[in-house]
Amino acid sequence: MTTTATGSLIGASMSRVEGVDKVTGQARYAYEYVAPGVCYAWPVQSVIARGRVTSVDDGACGDVLAVVWHANAARLGDTGDPTLSVLQDDRVSYRGQIVALVVAETLEGAREAAGRLHVAYEAEAHDTVLTADHATLYKPDDDDADAVVGDPDAAFATSPVQVDATYTTPAEHNNPMEPHATLAQWDGDALTLHDSNQGGQEVRQTLAKLFDLPQEQVHVVNSHVGGGFGSKGTPRPNVVLAALAARVVDRPVKLCLTRQQMFSMVGYRSPTIQRMRLGADPDGRLRSISHDVIVQTAALNEFVETAADISRVMYSARDRRTSHRAVRLDVPVTSWMRAPGECPGSFALESALDELAAATSLDPVELRIRNEPAADPHTGRPFSSRHLVECLRAGAERFGWAGRDPRPGLRRQGRWLVGTGMAASTYPVFVLPATARAAVDEQGMYTVSINATDIGTGARTALLQLAAAALDVGPGQVTILIGDTSLPKAWIAGGSTGTNSWGWAVTKAARSLAALVRDAGGEVPHGGLTATENTNDDVKALEEYSRHAFGAQFVEAHVDVDSGEIRVPRMVGVFAAGHIVNARTARSQLVGAMTMGLSMALHEEGVMDAAFGDYANHDLATYHIASNADIVDIDVSWIDEDDPHLNANGTKGIGELGIVGTAAAVANAVHHATGVRHRDLPIHLEDVLQA
After folding, report:
1. Rg (CA), the chain
2. Do the beta carbons of residue 64 and residue 103 sit within 8 Å?
3. How far apart are CA 251 and CA 192, in angstroms?
């Protein structure tokens, strides 16, 4: 981009400011930093799913510097997260849990020694399979786990039209391009970490507690991060192990997880069993919505995938119930994954809406419009803005939905059955407090600093655009500093909070600095000028509104009548997400999320081996994801949305929005093509053929 007029900065298609550094290899990721005397650590994982470690042969050999296990590991502080209390006792709570750590002069030496290390166990019977009738089902200790309005069971029983169906999604695993990696080094009692994470402040606080340090003595650098999808939202065992090992050998230590190790160490999305009951009048207007969800959580630590939450906000019905039940199993710890809750929940809700459309002979778009709520059905608060209907209508027009024959299984192109489907999307708008500093020197060059994290989304560039616009200068006059805990405090890149939270603080600081420059008559004094602002009080004033982004997705699916192969030649997504800061990176985020949703519908599946006690497929050869060949065209657009009740920039966040509803749209299109409803993801070839 060459335009410097600030009026065109917001919404412009600006190239990433770090793009050249990335393609030329100058952008350093955590594992690529250099430290004199560095050595390497390799974790040893449990081969049983439940029991205890009785002994470890910790005799050093070759270039091994240390073997650390629960009998000799330093005691760590309590963070409230047992997944980070590594090597603190003999208990094994899941297969793949870390039971020892080998530190050696070379990476190859550490890996070889870890593979040869003899660990003795006392195994116990394990339980790793989620079922709807599991004997230990329980209600999570969360006031918001269930929500009931009216009498949904009675309303359903008396409804002229009923949909009662159960939908399932499998375990899904985060696979960011950059594995979880850390370089840890101590200088006395000061700890420096180059770590791949979604928020250095969270890592800093946690490591300070674990090692009983003042926060000021923990320095976390995450200048460039190669993806996260939630798996790097909180510290993972790799950063704790690296710091622990570095203290043991009194040298810098590098630790990078392999792709296989990531499947059990960094969190994943729980499988879900979701029963949807919709009661409606013949005209499609909903009387009742019941969305009851069963998920798994680990015996070691509870994390509940709140998949029913989406049904609290999407459609109006007088009587409603959402509930969550969990089962503690001897499995790796579940955690955040892109659009936690809303993503799997939308598959059930939006599939059930499609079934209701068929039962009432209504167009699926019209059905959703008829059930548009006037206010948030769950809280009663007004929406800060809600343009779902506009997205539905604009998406239908762009896709060519008009004139669609609703009857399934009729269209054919040679050996391919052809169908179209759609679904709606939503994700809440979260804003977290942040602090930013803006400074200008005597040459009129500006520097804006905030401990934000760019995980590949283009956050660095969006913040530069916001800063330049607020300062009323060209983007070439502004430098953005992020990814370092020495910078002003900000929270994680997760939950689509980044631009909303950091951008507000950046804009506020930049406007304050611009005012100082004006007060100085436009002349920057010797030593420059600086302004620091935070949004702590601003964030508290937002609670009176229900704030959500919305969207509509349309899909064309082709199904081979002989093989059952499913192809998706085109997808259309139209979204309402406040002001879009950078058109180029926003489109990339939405295209990537929609592709991930397609992957969820047709490919991704963690396969549990009950005897083995873990997911049997734990690499990208056996855990399949969508590739470029899986889709020909994705058409992404957004509507103009001006919402004054969000933040200083009117942004909503888009990182999660695009994945919500995509899998349902694909499944609905497959149903339209074949006449067969698939309620279990992913949709396998054999499922199609058997049906």
Report:
1. 26
2. yes
3. 12
Whether the model pTM is above 0.90:
yes
**Count of CB atoms situated within 10 Å of the CB of 543:** 10
For residue 49, give both structure tokens: 């799913």
Helix H segments across 330-451?
342-360, 364-370, 388-399
* Each residue's pLDDT tens digit, 391-442: 999 999 999 999 899 999 999 999 999 999 999 999 999 999 999 999 999 9
The pLDDT of 351-356, averaged and rounded, is 98
Query: d(Cα 119, Cα 98) in Å, to the nearest integer?
Result: 11
Q: Report the Cα–Cα distance between both ends of the chain, in Å, rounded.
A: 52
Which of 288, 280, 352 minimizes the C-alpha distance to 320? 288
Distance CA 552, CA 530 (A): 44
The rounded distance, in Å, linking the Cα atoms of 159 and 255 is: 59
Cβ atoms of 315 and 377 closer than 8 Å? yes
Q: What's the chain's length in residues?
A: 691
Task: State how far the Cα of 72 lies from the Cα of 74, in Å rounded to an integer.
Answer: 7
Q: Which residues are catalytic?
A: 656
Residue with tokens 């609290």: 312
State residue 412 phi and psi, 5-degree precision. Answer: -145, 135
Sign of CA dihedral 203, 205, 207, 213: positive
Q: Is 322 helix (H, G, I), strand (E, B) or coil?
A: strand
CA atoms within 13 A on the CB side of 561: 14
Dist CA 656 CA 647 (whole Å): 19
Cite the DSSP H helix spans in 494-640. 498-519, 536-540, 583-602
